[in-house]
Design brief:
By secondary structure, the chain is α+β, with helices and mostly antiparallel strands. Among the domains are: 56 residues; 295 residues, Outer membrane efflux proteins (OEP) (Up-down Bundle), CATH 1.20.1600. It is built from 12 helices and 9 strands. A hairpin with a 2-residue loop joins β3 and β4. α5 runs antiparallel to α6. It is elongated, with a radius of gyration of 41 Å.
Length: 562
Amino acid sequence: MKCINRYRVEKKLAFLATVFYALASPTLGASEYMNYPTVQKGKEYKQELRNYKNEVRLLGTEQPPVLASPIRNSGGTEETRQMPPLPTKSVQYSQLVGDSTLGGINIFQDNSLVLKNPKLSALISVERNLNPFSLDAQYSQVVALRELLQIGVSNNLDIRISRNNAKAAKYDYLSSLGQFLPDINLGDQQYWFNGNISLPLNNTRTNINLTGPFMISHAGFTYHVYQGGKVLFGALQRKHQLNAANAQVHTSYSDTLTDIARRYYQLALQEIILQIRIRAADTSEEQVRVSTSRFDQGLGTNLDVLQARQQLAADRQSLLEQQVIRRQAAIDLAALLNYDMDVDLKPAVNVNRVVLVQKQGVEHLLKVAIQNRPELKDLIEQKKAASSQIALAGSALQPTVDFVGNVYGIGPNSGGLSRVEPLYYLGLNINWKLGGLGTVDAANIAAASTRASNAKVELQKKIVEVIQSVRNAYIRSLASDQNILESDNRVVAAVEELRLAEIRYQTGVGTHLDVLTAQRDYTQAQITKAQAITDFNVAQVQLIRELGLISLDHLASDKPVL
């Protein structure tokens, strides 16, 4: 590439020099100076291109460079960044969650999302005839994760498509096995003749007169004794393709169950956020009432009232948007299940923090993934099928042997009565055909061998992707677990901030803006914790999916899978 770039630069410089020289020498035509450098540089370019190809050929034969020996990292560190402890006088989180002064609604309980049906009066109506919670839905149904997984297994369209593909592959395999059996030939031809046939028999000319109906009937078989391995390796190829199709069914099954669990937890998250938004709107209404009362008593300002009303309007907008988001999450889940979208799906009462994979070494997880991932089994079978294709292509270069047998009945057929005599024969047919002197089939063998090598490379690439995905899911799961603890600290700080801001405002030390800011921080802290719990559950689901351990029982289990 350096040679090519250097040639381009030299060509541009030569072009500029030529134009300048042509302008300085008007006695010569410009075309003469334009053509000469092009011819000369064209020869140099071809030589440089040959040199470049030689360099590439030499690099291909050399061993790839090796990095320096890696340094093994220690298992952990002695000190990491820690959250400072709370002051002893600080109000504990367990007391603050149920504090009635904050409009207490128990949203979290032991790192679980507590889902409750909101009052319709707490929601915002978008249309008079629509329920503000279920919106366009006509029915409502409370479902658990196991029920959704069962519906998904039976109704999901992707699973149906993969199952039908596997079923078709099964019939293809059975069709290939049928080629081991002999072929049956049956036939009956009816003719009507009127004329003579002249045949040379015993050096004499013999005329045979044919008049009236005539029939030729036959029944026989053809058994392909040897086809160069075409039948055998064709059946093996179909078998590997069937195994690959079954692995693809498992892959579709795993992906669908993973998406169902993910959308179920997302629906629970959106519903808990809706509860948080309702609580924030209630608090904002209370702030408007308090600010208005203080303004009427001469203790507050009109700015406090306007700020409170602005915050209430923002919370109402967020509440309305969250109503739509929650319903959209239910629609997405129903669409994935191929379920009636006129039914508004609602998660069970509580969505717990689910631990599916306990903390353990990543090396063990990688071994489990290599053994269980259906994508690897699919590519392994495809690689075997590609290897069988090499033998199939090579079978065309070998002779074929067929064992045949027939019985013929030839004679007149008149008055519904057949007067024919049977004629039996058995034969052994040996054929050897080389298309294009064998060059065509040799090229097909080379192409099949290349595709088999490519299938091996694709398997290696998928192994790298599996290792990468397992490691990413593993560290994401660990980070999500720690993030729940950090979100707890954030909620504790936000609750205390809101409590102190209200006290400071009531005593005249703080401002009303401090209360509104603390209120927004508290709302966002609750949303962050709900998101952290959901992210952990989704990360656990994704981790067992990367390990190839996805199943209905595993996802619906309350105990760790691994």
